[in-house]
Amino acid sequence: MPITKGDVQIYYETRGSSDGIPILFVQGFTWQLIGWREGFCQTFVDRGAFVILYDNRDVGLSQKFGGPDDYDGGYSLANMASDGFSVLDDLGLTSVHVVGASMGGMIAQIMALSQPSRVRSLNLIYTAPSVDPRYFVPQETQAADELGKRFEREQAIEEFVKRERASASTAYPYDEEWVRELGSRMYDRCYAPDGLLRQLSAMLRWRPTLEALGSLDMPSSIIHGRADGRIRAEAALDIGRVLKNSELHIYPGLGHEIAASLWDEFATIIMRTAARA
């Protein structure tokens, strides 16, 4: 469902009954809302959640902030956090539980800091409190240099699969077949590689939030993997040290992914955190 707030159009979808526990899922860098696997979403619906998904600006069916040669859209992660609130406004929700993964976790932090009364609980999955290089595995920065290139469909899918291999776990099966299917669906749904660089520009101008997170007291959970090939687990440890009322979960052998065998466990953690609110 597309909505327009001011001069920004954002596309969102929901799963489950609107009478359920509202949970907003904020997707990571470059990924569209279809990156939240239906089975994972259903795990929450089965537990009584009203799941809300949306495309971040510059990917999927949400508004693009430039053309093929525009690598900076002039917006910030704070603007992207405002997009999330716009979705809540359209649904008539004054507050929700927020789940953010990777860059989505950065956006979720900004949502909680800017309007804490609207964030009932904060759940951060493999994210960081800043773009300090010490939190990031070097290959991620190198891969980002290739994001703006346009390819024909088959090569674009192969490039996506190649890039996403850095997210694989060492202790859990990596579902490359699903990643390939996702790359295909994202291409067919909306292929706009230039938008990814505009998201990167927004992320690179983000100011650290670590110290500010100490002011938050809503129930929170932090989930990360020791084998994350993109964002180091030290980022989660630092967040856990300052974020009051939080529980920290570090999984040995987990990469930058939500392994299917952990869906139930992740849902249990997040729903328990929501219940604490």
What does this protein look like?
- The chain is an alpha/beta fold.
- The protein has a single domain (2-276), classed as 3-Layer(aba) Sandwich (Rossmann fold).
- It is 39% helix and 18% strand.
- The protein has helices at 38-45, 77-91, 103-114, 138-144, 153-164, 176-189, 193-204, 210-213, 233-242, 263-276; strands at 2-5, 8-15, 21-26, 49-54, 96-101, 119-125, 220-225, 246-251.
- The protein has an eight-stranded mixed sheet with strand order 1-2-4-3-5-6-7-8, sandwiched between helices.
- Helix 1 packs across helix 10, helix 2 (77-91) crosses helix 3 (103-114) and helix 5 (153-164) crosses helix 6.
- The longest helix is centred in the N-terminal third of the chain and has 15 residues, at 77-91.
- The protein is globular, with a radius of gyration of 17 Å.
- The mean pLDDT is 95.
